[in-house]
Amino acid sequence: MAEPVQIQRLPQDAYIDAVRWLPQFSTFTRHILLAAFDSDTSTHSLRTIAFSPSQNASSLIPQSSLSVPSRITSLRTCSSTFNPSRPIIAASTFSGSLLFFTADLINGSLSFELSVPEKGLHNGFVSGIDLNENGSECVSVGEDGRVNLVGLAEKGGFRRVFDSNGLVSYSAVKWASPVEFVTGGVGRFGLHWWDQRKPGGPVALFKGNWTDGTTSGIVHSVDIHPSRKYTCLAGGSSGTLFAWDIRSPKESTILSSVGLNDAPANSLVESDIWEVQYDNYTHSSKISNLSSSRILPAMTCSEDGILAVIEHGQEPIEILAEPCAINCFDIDRQNPTDVICSLEWESLAILTRP
C-alpha cells in the first residue's frame, strides 16, 4: 500500500496572493516567500517564513515582512550567482510597478533593491513576469499587450520588446532559454514564442484552436521544462491543460479539459486552471519509460479546489481537494517531494509526498 501524502493546513492572518519556495541554502532550514493582502487594513506585504523539515511544519516561524505599494500579481525567485545565501525576488503589482528584492537566508531578512515605476512600463497592472536563470533579466507582460525586458544591472531601466496597443492581451510568460520566452494570453491562439535575436514580434504562434471554438479562452499559466525547451505547457479556462511543441505550430496535445472532443474523458478539473508546473517528482521505475515524444507529468491547481498531477496517457492523480479555490502553488525544485499552495480561505497547505 502506497504511503499517503502528508498534508498540513496552516491558517494565516491575510489573503495569500502568491507563494514560492526560496532556494535552499541550509540543510536544516527551509524558507517560504509569500505575498499577503490584509483586507481589514487594505495593506499589502511580502513576507518570509522559516521552518525545519525535521519538525512539524505548523511551527512555522515568521522572519520578515516588507510593505509593498499594491497587491502582488506575480512572484518569481531565483538563486544569485554572486551570493547563494541571497536569492533574487521579482514581484509585479496591480498598480503596474515591478519590484526587486533580495532575501538574506542567514539573517532572515528582506531587502528592497530597486523598482521599475508604473509610468511607461504597462498601461494597467502587470499580469505576468519571469526571471531568467541567473536573475539578470526579467520579462513582463500585461493585458495592455506590452512585452518588456528589465535588466537588473540597469537599475530600473527597461526595453520595450513589443506593444500591440491593446490588440493582443498577455497573461503569463516563461523563459525557455537566455534569449527565448513564451507568452500566454487571451483568445483562440493564445501562445506566442519570442526570440530576442529576431526583434519585431513573436517568431512562432500557436495556430491550433485549444478551445474548440466554444469560447475565447484565457491561458492563465505556462511552463517550459529545462530539458525540453521546445514544448510549452499551458493551463487555462474550462480546466484545459495542453502542450504545444513550437516545431508543430498547428498541433497540440490536450491533457485535460471540459467539453473538448479530443480531451481525456477522465479530466479531474472542471474550472479555470490557475497555475501549471512540470512535476519532477517521479518514481525511478517510470523514468526509463518516458520517451522524448511523451509529455512529462504536470501539476495544476484550480478554481474548484483541486491540486492534481496530470500525466500524458495516465489517469490523473488528485493530490488535494479543498472546498475553496487553490490559487497558486510551488514545487520545491531541490526537494520535489514538497509542495506548498495557497487556499482561498486565508491559509497555506504544505504537502509532503513519500
Summarize the structure in words.
The chain has 354 residues and is mainly beta. The protein contains two helices and 28 strands. It has helices at residues 118-121, 284-287, and strands spanning 6-11, 15-21, 30-38, 43-51, 61-67, 72-78, 88-93, 98-104, 109-116, 126-131, 137-142, 146-151, 158-163, 170-175, 180-185, 191-195, 204-205, 219-225, 228-236, 241-245, 253-256, 273-278, 298-302, 306-310, 317-321, 326-331, 338-343, 347-352. A four-stranded antiparallel beta sheet has the order 1-28-27-26, with no helix packed on it. A four-stranded antiparallel beta sheet has the order 2-3-4-5, with no helix packed on it. It is globular, with a radius of gyration of 19 Å. The mean pLDDT is 87.
Task: Provide a concise account of the structure shown.
This protein has 354 residues and is mainly β.
Mean pLDDT: 87
Oligomer type: single chain
State the secondary-structure class: mainly beta
Radius of gyration from CA coordinates: 19 Å
Helix content: under 10%
What spatial form do the alpha-carbon principal axes imply? Answer: globular
Low-confidence stretches: none
Biggest sheet overview: 4 strands, antiparallel
H and E string: EEEEEEEEEHEEEEEEEEEEEEEHEEEEEE
Distance between the termini: 12 Å
Question: Which key features would you list for this structure?
Answer:
354 residues, mainly beta, four-stranded antiparallel β-sheet, 2 helices, globular
Question: What's the SSE blueprint?
Answer:
Elements: E1 6-11, E2 15-21, E3 30-38, E4 43-51, E5 61-67, E6 72-78, E7 88-93, E8 98-104, E9 109-116, H1 118-121, E10 126-131, E11 137-142, E12 146-151, E13 158-163, E14 170-175, E15 180-185, E16 191-195, E17 204-205, E18 219-225, E19 228-236, E20 241-245, E21 253-256, E22 273-278, H2 284-287, E23 298-302, E24 306-310, E25 317-321, E26 326-331, E27 338-343, E28 347-352
